[in-house]
C-alpha cells in the first residue's frame, strides 16, 4: 500500500512521492532556513502546530531568538546558529529556504554577503536537498521583476532588472537562486517549488527594519514625521503574513513547481499608505518628503490568477 508523502514523512526525488508505509515515522522533518526572521518564525509556528519536527537554521543577521523562543521546550523544535553560505549536513524531508535579508536597508548593508547568501547559500541547500531527497522551496521575490514594464506582473514576465545597481545583490541574487533551483530540478531531479513573494507585513517585523509599513507605523507612534521617499506616487501591494504562510505551505504540499506570485493585488501609493496610518494611529501624523532611493520600482502589483487556480488561494 502506498501513501502520499505528507502522510509518511518521507520523499525521494526518484520515488515520484510514493514510498511504502513503514519506512519512516509519520512526522515530517522540516528545515526552515531564516526561521528566526519575520516570515520564517510564523511559518515555524504553523509547522509545529501541524505536528511536524522543525529545525531552524539561522545566523541571526536580521532574525531574533525571541521570535522562536516559545518553542524552546518543544522536543520537535531545534535551533541551529549557522550561516547557509557554509555547507550543512542534515537528514530531512522538506527544506523551506528563506535565509536572506529582505529589507532594502539590510540587504544593501553588505551587498557581497547578500549575493553570497542568495547564490552560495541556495546552492548549499539545493546540494542538501539532492543528497537526502528532500523537497526544496525557494522564497524568491517580486523584485525579480525589477522596475516592471508590465503591470500587473504575471509569472511569465521576465522582468526589467538593472544588473549593476545597488539593489542587484538582492534581485539578481534571487534570479540566480531561481536559476539554480530549476537547474537542480531538471538536472538532478530535485523536487522544487518557487514562490515569488510580494511585500508582506505583520507582527515580528523589526521596528527598525527600514521597510515602509514598519517605518510609517513606528514614526507615527513616536510622533515623528512619516518619511515618504520621492513623490510618494510609487505603488506597492501588501499582504498579511498569515496569508503568505498559507500560500507557502500549500505550494510545498501541492504538485506544482511554480514560480507562483504570492501577494495581495490591492495596490496603494505610498501617500495612500501614509493616510491609512494617519487614520489608524494618529490623524495629526505629519509627512516629510525625502529623496528616493536608487532604482526604486515605480509600481508593483501581483497577478495571482495562477495561485488562485492551482493552489486554491485567495478564494
Ligand atoms: P527577515 O530579514 O526577517 O528574515 C530573514 C532571515 O534570514 C533572518 O532570520 C536572518 O537572520 C536570516 N539570514 C540572513 N542571512 C542568512 C545566512 N547567510 N545564513 C543563515 N540565515 C540567514 O526577512 P523576511 O521578511 O522574513 O523574509 C524571508 C524571506 O522571504 C527572504 O528570503 C526574503 O527575500 C523573502 N521575501 C520577503 C518579502 C517580505 O515582504 N517580507 C518579500 C519578498 C521576498
Ligand atoms: N552540500 C551541503 N549539504 C549536503 C550536500 C551538499 O551543504 O548535505 C553543499 C556542498 O558542500 C556543495 C553544494 O551543496 O557546496 C552543492 O552540492 P552538490 O552535491 O550539488 O555539488 P558538488 O558538491 O558536487 O559541487
Ligand atoms: N518607502 C518610503 N518611506 C520609507 C520606506 C520606504 O516612502 O520610510 C517607499 C520606498 O521608496 C518604496 C516603498 O516604500 O517605494 C516600499 O519600500 P520597502 O523598503 O518597504 O520595500 P521594497 O518594495 O522597496 O522592497
Observed structural traits:
binds nicotinamide-adenine-dinucleotide, NAD, globular, binds uridine-5'-diphosphate, two-stranded antiparallel sheet, EC 4.1.1.35, decarboxylase, disordered N terminus, 7-stranded parallel β-sheet, lyase, UDP-glucuronate decarboxylase, 315 residues, alpha/beta
Give the topology, please.
Layout (H helix, E strand, L loop, with lengths): L1 E2 L1 H4 L10 E2 L8 E5 L4 H13 L2 E6 L18 E5 L12 E4 L6 H6 L1 H22 L2 E7 L26 H21 L3 E6 L2 E2 L10 H10 L4 E4 L5 E3 L1 E2 H13 L6 E3 L4 E3 H11 L6 E4 L14 H7 L4
Parallel strand pairs: 3-4, 3-6, 4-5, 6-7, 7-8, 8-13, 9-12, 10-15
Antiparallel strand pairs: 1-2, 11-14
What does this structure look like?
This protein has helices at 5-8, 38-50, 104-109, 111-132, 168-188, 212-221, 241-253, 270-280, 305-311, and strands at residues 2-3, 19-20, 29-33, 53-58, 77-81, 94-97, 135-141, 192-197, 200-201, 226-229, 235-237, 239-240, 260-262, 267-269, 287-290. The protein is an alpha/beta fold and 315 residues long. The strands form five sheets. Strands 5-4-3-6-7-8-13 form a seven-stranded parallel beta sheet, with helices on both faces. A two-stranded antiparallel ribbon has the order 1-2. Helix 2 links the parallel strand 3 and strand 4 (53-58). Helix 2 crosses helix 7, helix 4 runs parallel beside helix 5 (168-188) and helix 6 (212-221) packs parallel to helix 8. The chain is globular. It binds nicotinamide-adenine-dinucleotide and uridine-5'-diphosphate (2 copies). One uridine-5'-diphosphate binds at residues 87-89, 123-124, 127-128, 130-131. Its cofactor is NAD(+). This is UDP-glucuronate decarboxylase. Belongs to the NAD(P)-dependent epimerase/dehydratase family. UDP-glucuronic acid decarboxylase subfamily. Residues 32-309 form the NAD(P)-binding domain.
